[in-house]
Amino acid sequence: MRHPARTASLCLLACGATALATVPPSALPSTAIAAPGLGIDIRDRFNQTFPGGSLIEVRGQLRRVFGQRFSTGATPHDSVESFLMDWSSLWGVPFEQLQPVGPFDDGAHQIELMHEEDGTNPSFTSVYWQQHVRGVPVFRGWVWGLAANEPSFPMVLGGGTLKDLGADFPASLESRDLSPSTMDPAVYAREALNQFGAPPLMTSPRYVVWAGVDTDPQPARLAIEFVATGGGPWDPTNHQKMQYVVDADTGEILHQESQILHGAVSGTVSGKVTDGSKADACNTEVTKGLPYVGVVVGGTTSYADANGNFNVTYTGTSNVSVAPTINGRFFRVNESGGNTVASVSAQTVANGGSATFTFNSTPAVAQTAQVNCYFESNKVRDMVLAAHPTYPTIANQTSFPIYTNIADSCNAYYDGASINFFAAGGGCNNTGFSSVVHHEYGHHVVNRGGSGQGAYGEGMGDCMSVLMLDEPQLGVGFFANNCSSGLRNAANSCQYNASSCSSCGSAIHSCGQLLSGAVWDVRNLLRAAYPNDYRTRLARLVVNSVPMHAGQSDIASDIAADFLTIDDAVSNGGNNDIRDGTPNYNLITQAFNAHGLTAPSLALMIFEFPNTVPNAIDPAGGQTYDLTIRPVSSQIQTGSEKMWFREGTSGSFTELALQKQSGDTYRATFPATTCGSALQFYFEASSTGGTIVRSPSTAPTDLLSTVSRISYAIALDDNFDGTTTAFVSTGNVGPSRGGFLRTGPITVNNCNGPVIATGKAWVTGSLSTSCNDIDAGWTEMLSPTFDVSGGQTIALSIVTYLSNDTGGFPGEDPITISASNDGGTTWVVIDTIYQSHGWTSRRYELQNYLAPSSTVRIKVRAEDLGAGDSQVKAAVDNIRVESIVCTAGLFGDLDGDGVVGAGDVAVLLLEYGACAGCPADLDGSGTVDSGDLALLILSFTE
With 70 as the cut, is the pLDDT of residue 614 above it? Predict the structure, then answer.
């Protein structure tokens, strides 16, 4: 009978089709990058904040954020955390769902990468978070950031496999008991156990959130994950070890993955240790030192060094018994085929004497396999740690099991806890030899690096053989009577294919050749450039790239971005900015592009902003702003450097030439504008080949913005996330009937839309999972009074949400925004909104509706007053009122009240820090600092 588990472990899953592109953030689907609760498009903020940033998506799933420095902090953790707090919504995931847990055995959430060759001074720290909902981890839901180990720890690369769970699912867990005692094995294990002939051993189950893997998103549901193991190396016919993810309520198998990862590789050991890369039947045996073997001296075990040498002290001076064992510090050999484990006779050695021991001195096939597997496992482990001295788990792991001479043929496998090799038979040699061992241990490197297996695991396993042997063929001598060819060859021309994984095939072993092919091509190019140390350079790139693949199991072009970012480490001669290339940019891109794994292109030129973009400019015009335009892969066409500028948020742009200063610095001069107006602009230059480059790169779709004003004061500013607020609610319906309340975060799907996923907001209705709409009444949320009497332009910014298009009479009930200048006695309607919409940011100039005063209030009203039953849900967030002054006033009078005093100090402190063009920058230095504070105090009139 054909054994289903063995079939699954040989074939695993068919390689999923993927399609990868480097895209501007504006091109990503809105479902992937919405910013719940913010009310503004996350793409606009990303472009405004990171003009040099780019995103890589694979079949609509965001995989990488790269292109510039994105965040800083006091530690790598702080730097990456600050980025994720602002930008996790790029993945459609609120930061509150992230916990600092890494994809490693010990849960460590940060690791160091790219050390110097002596194992010191790592160039990067990679920091990881895992997605959770109510403490339940999302299956393979990870996000990470790579921070450069330099001052302020800038984050230079980010990536992840986060899952957009929508709003309904998290709410469905609110009232659910998620304790382990609620998991019924009669339900969750029923379908899985039908795949075993005898009851298997099972790990403790745990709740997880299932939302698909890689580029196959699935509707979120609560699931249970566990591993079942049947048989063992001693019983290969019935041996299977399977990871299951099953529906928590029905036991339906949602995902299963064999933990026995076979490798179709060749090689056998005959004699002492088989020399070279081929199987024992193809090469002769030579004596080689066995690394780190255990040596029992007088009953105490010590360990030899990497070359098999030992120097052990013991108590006393008499003769002592010395007995080595092939079970060493880092690996333990277990015999599965009925043979004895290779051994040597103990010797009695005099004090100060020496002894020589040789395992497998008279070669026998079974013992040769044992010695070979032990020797090669230690060598590949040493190579990994030389490239990454603190590699997760592996750096400190001891007694890792090796099973040899398993009574089956033509295979080898890794099962998550051991590496396993088959006896000769079935037309194949014993699989316990060099390249096979390297490949299977490569699966362990992938597993402990936090990555999934699949095509990537097979490809990276082959890469371990390339790194160890410096040869492209894998498994030469795998088949009996064939010492010239192997099973796979890294010297290939396999091409990435969006529908079938690769031109070499869609099976994971075939698709894996994409990665080994690219790595082999990198090897050849490095060898030509660095003939003396190319293997060390290659190993550092390959091994350090594995933790960047956390949560993924496929092969796509994001791996090229990982290689380039690692290559651009300062310790490697780079500058942590791959837009202008890396020390080995040309050869890495040449290698990956040759296999259709398109690497990020060099920028034609790079726009850089030494100072932040001014948040305000002088209405009189003449204010300047300096930027740099640095040529990279093309020279800049003289005279093409310009700023496109418009007043307002619509209409045509005006072209303004940039004035070249020294070097790559250019100066923009803003024209005269209408005070109080919003202004939009972008920068542009052409290459000598005629290609136009803009910043933001997606302009004029995405733009930079500022406002025209002489000075301003913040009269009201509340995002409702604090512990208190001066806003109040009123009406004839309470929260149970849909009245306004301040609450959050809410992740339920109330009335056809997510209400808020981060922080707090004013929301109609309770936190129930039903619509809970406004029921036959009205509700209002009102601001406190505030003073804008000194302003010429009063700018109200407000974020609203409305759903009113369901029920019997859709669209008939609006939300209304009103203002009062007499403390709330009389009101003027500013806007009435009937159209159902998601979060929307709105801006109004209040002076167009009422005279500014010292007792202005704002209110938002939502209602359900029509003849029929429409379902209405409304929310309000982020209310801000600025009093903008448009006439020159007293120097230092920042709040426009006619005097210089404590109120102006408050305004200055709000703008403290880098703030080019801010009214509080009294000395024009581009930074609001102690110098401006001193000038302000000297100008006091109160």
Answer: yes
